[in-house]
Amino acid sequence: MKRLHIFLLKSFLKPFIATFFIAIFILLMQFLWKYIDDLVGKGLDVIQIFQLLFYASARFVPIAIPIALLLASVMVFGKLGEQYELVALKSAGISFYKILSPLIIFVIFISYGSYLFSNYIMPIANLKNGSMIYNIQKKKPALNIREGIFYYDIDGYAIKVNKKLNDGVNLNGILIYDHTGNDGNTKVLSSRSGKMEITADGRFLNLFLYDGSSYIEVSNKNQKTPFRITNFKENLIRFDLNSFNAFSDSEKLYKGHYAMLNNKQLNYSIDSLNIRYKNKVSSIKENTLSQYLKNISSDTIRKKILVSNTKASYDIAINKLRKLKAQAKSNKNDLNYQNIIINKHKIEWHRKISLAVACLLLFLVGAPLGSIIRKGGFGLPVLFSILFFLLFHVLNIIGEKSAKDLSMTPLEGMWLANIIFIPIIFFLMYKAKNDTKFIDLSSFYIFINRIKNKIQ
After folding, report:
1. Burial (CB count <10 Å: 0-12, 13-18, 19+), residue 447
2. How far apart, in whole angstroms, are the C-alpha atoms of residue 254 and residue 135?
3. Vertex 343, ends 340 and 345: CA angle to 5°?
4. Domain positions in the chain
5. What are phi and psi of 167, to 5 degrees?
6. Which of 56, 280, 310, 356 falls 20 to 30 Å from 365 in CA-CA distance?
C-alpha cells in the first residue's frame, strides 16, 4: 500500500504543478488584456513590470489551485482507467476510496495552504497590486500624444496635434487649451509647428511652438476688448515630469479596503460597520420622531387658522408628505449602501474559506470523473474539466452577485457553488465505485427499440 500511495502521489504531483502554472499564465493573460491600455506608453522599466506581474500572479493563486486540482485529478485517474490500472487495483481488493485516501490527505493540506495564502499573503498582494495599478494609471506618458486626438494626461492642459512626424519630436498643427487657471477655455494657444524635448535631467518636457498665436479672454470690464490676441514666432511651454515618473505612496488609499484585510481584520471591520449601522438606524428613528412631534405641535397652533381654509391645509399636508417621502428614500438608500458595504466584507471573509474547500470538492469531482471517462492526456479530460469548472465558476459568480445586491446572504451566496457540487460528487463517486458509465443510455435504446417493434 505504501508503494501504491507513493506512486499515486508522484503521478499526481507532476500534472498538478504543470496545470497550476498553466492556469496562472491564462489568468495573467486575462489580467494583462484588461489593463493593457493603462500599461502601454507609461515608460515602465523591467523591474516595475515584473513586480506588477508577480503581485498579479499572487492574486490568482487561490483560483488557480482548484482549477489545477480538477485538471490533474481528471488526467491522472483518466490515465489509470485507460491503462486498466484501476481495474487491476480493484480486482486486488483495493476499493476506490482506499485508492483516493492518500491523495485526499494531500489535497486537504493543499486546501489548508490555500486558506493560509488567501488569509495572510493575498491581502498584501492585493494591496501592492492595487497600489501599483493606481500609480500606473496616474503615471503620465511624456510622448504619447496621438494625431487628431485631444491629449488630457498633462494636468491643466488639453493638447491636440494634427500631424506627428516619424521622429516623434517634431509636430505640425498644434492646438493647446490652458486650463491651469480653472476658468474654462479662456486661454488658447495655436501654432503651425512645434518640437518636444525632454531636458537632460529628465525633470521637464519642453514644448517649443513656432509661428503661432495665443488667445486670452480678459475678465476686466474696463478693457475695451473682451479678449487679447498675441502673435509669436517662438514660444516655450515647460511641463514638470516629476509626477510622470514618480510612484506616489498610494497604499494608504487601499489599506482599509476589504480585499486587503485578513479574516481577523475583517471580523473587526464587520463589527465596527454593524455598530455604525445600528447607530444610523436609531438616529433616523429619533430624527423622524422628533420631526413628527414638532409637526404635531405646529399643526395644533395652525389648526384654528386653517380650519376655514381647506386648500391651504391640503397644500401644507402634501408638502409635508413629499418632504417625509424624500427623507425616507434618502435614509433607505443610505442604509442599503451601508448594508452592501457590510456584505462585501462578509463576502470576502467567506471567499477565503469557500475557495479552500472548493479545492477538495473539485478534486473529488475530478478523480471519479477521470475513472469514468478513462482517458488520459490533455484531450477529453481537459474538455470535461473546463465544463465542470465553468459550471462552478458561473454558480460562484451568481452567488456572489446575489449576495452583493442583498438578494442572498453572504453565507448562501459564497457557498452556493460548493453546496450544489456536493450531490454531484456523490453521484460521480457512486458511478466510479460501481464502474458504470457517466450516462447510461442502454435502457433508453431498449425502450426505443421496443416502440419500433410494436409499430412494425
Report:
1. exposed
2. 12
3. 115
4. 2-139+347-447, 157-245, 262-345
5. -75, -10
6. 56
140-192: per-residue pLDDT in tens?
A: 444 567 788 877 767 777 888 888 887 767 888 988 888 777 666 678 888 99
CB-based contact 19:71 (threshold 8 Å): yes
CA distance 63 to 66: 6
Calpha distance 188→235 (Å, rounded): 13
How many whole angstroms separate alpha carbon 219 and alpha carbon 103? Answer: 79
Q: What is the DSSP track for 266-333?
A: HHHHHHHHHHHHHHHHHHHHHHHHHHHHHHHHHHHHHHHHHTT-HHHHHHHHHHHHHHHHHHHHHHHH
Q: What does the alpha-carbon distance between residue 29 and residue 51 come to, in Å, rounded to a whole number?
A: 15
Cell of 230: 498675441
Query: Going edge to edge, which strands form the sheet with 204-217?
Result: 157-164, 170-178, 187-198, 204-217, 227-240
| Sequential DSSP letters for 142-162 | TT-PPBTS-B--STTEEEEEE
Span 300-315, pLDDT tens digits: 545 544 555 566 667 7
Q: Quickly tell me which residue has 405641535 as its cell.
A: 297
The Cα 44–Cα 283 span in angstroms is 50
